[in-house]
Amino acid sequence: MGCHSTHPVADEETAGVRPHCPFCAAAWTDAMLAQFDSVTSPSSCACCGPVAADPVAIPADDLRCAACGRAIYRAPSTSID
Q: Which single residue of 31, 33, 68, 72 could bond 24 by disulfide (Cβ 3.0 to 4.6 Å)?
């Protein structure tokens, strides 16, 4: 069982919808999305494993909410606040 789809993830209904901070509900900024995109592989999913041949760099910094500053995704090298 996989997570493959022939339909694009974003369509007219979901285009422009951004993820929100689980702590303060602020929409992610462009910088937050760019940081997330830089350490993820767009051709893979969590249940199927990586599909891309190129390895993804391990993040050095936490992905933090631009509004409240709390860590949404933690880098492996950082400690818990």
A: 68
